[in-house]
Amino acid sequence: MQNHVCSRRIALKVLAAGGAAGTLASACSGPAGAAPAPVGVVQAGLVSSYPVGSLEPVGNLALAVGRDAKGLYAMTLTCTHEGCNMAVEGNVSASGIVCSCHGSQFDANGGVTRGPAQETLTHFAVTVDASGTITVHGDQTVAASARTPVA
Fold first, then answer.
1. pLDDT tens across 94-124, in order?
2. Which domains does the chain have, with CATH numbers?
3. Cα–Cα distance between 28 and 142 in angstroms, integer?
């Protein structure tokens, strides 16, 4: 059984908002000090929902989809310091990602800009079907520079 990190503050916030055990588990994703567990295959909306220069969390999952001039990319939102889910306990925007648990900061591509985190965020493969639906393949890690071109 993995040891997941979840502050009492996060647990109470999720439960007070009516969250169920599954929501709590996703809010408290990631073992302390380790790479995040794969998120599986996730439908992440339509390409048209992601203008160039955007970075958005996918619901409360520890996952974000971004788009830059080269295309779409996806990465974990599990902080590499102690495993906080920054979609729930943090701030995600095109200017970067902030973990509210201990103050780590990452750029919009997942690179560490301020500790205590020391490791970059893991990126996942992205595909887009003919209708423009984005699928993130959380079981397939890719280089931080990988992009899926879109028209």
1. 999 999 999 999 999 999 999 999 999 999 9
2. 8-142 (2.102.10.10)
3. 24
